[in-house]
Target: Cupin domain-containing protein
Amino acid sequence: MSDPAARIEELKTSLQLQPHVEGGHYRRFHPSKGTDNGGVRQAMSAIHYLLEAGQCSSWHRVDAEEAWHFVEGEPLELLIYDADHKSLRRHCLGPLAADVDAMVIVPARAWQAARPLGRYALVTCMVAPAFTYDGFEMLEEDAPLARHLAGLAPEIPAP
Model:
């Protein structure tokens, strides 16, 4: 499909994507809704995640490792902040090429944000052990770290 706007709408419909609290659109597809693991945290969870031009995934962290896999569209920039070493790494996630990764792993508890570098980017994000809201944290706008990250990555808007 050569019309990006039409493809974005097709993806939202066919993948049943909903607005995400971080920005963009998503749908959790594993484990499936209603899957009961007897109160035990699942080994892994996975979502489809779509960012359009002008959207971003706000600074956040989870208590588990997260693997970002590029699916389609144009590359996106995935930013990972290591608070222990006070360092910011920028990864270009897209079709495998020189200086472009098809997959990037975000360490557990690392701050992360993302933005599309073109019209849209569709990725699959897998979290292990499985994502839980108890293990999720959005960066507060008035946190000292928010001001620091705004200086390092002004292209990611404050929460």
User: Anything to note?
Assistant: The chain has a mean pLDDT of 94. The chain has two helices and eleven strands. The helical segments are 4-14, 144-152. The radius of gyration is 16 Å.
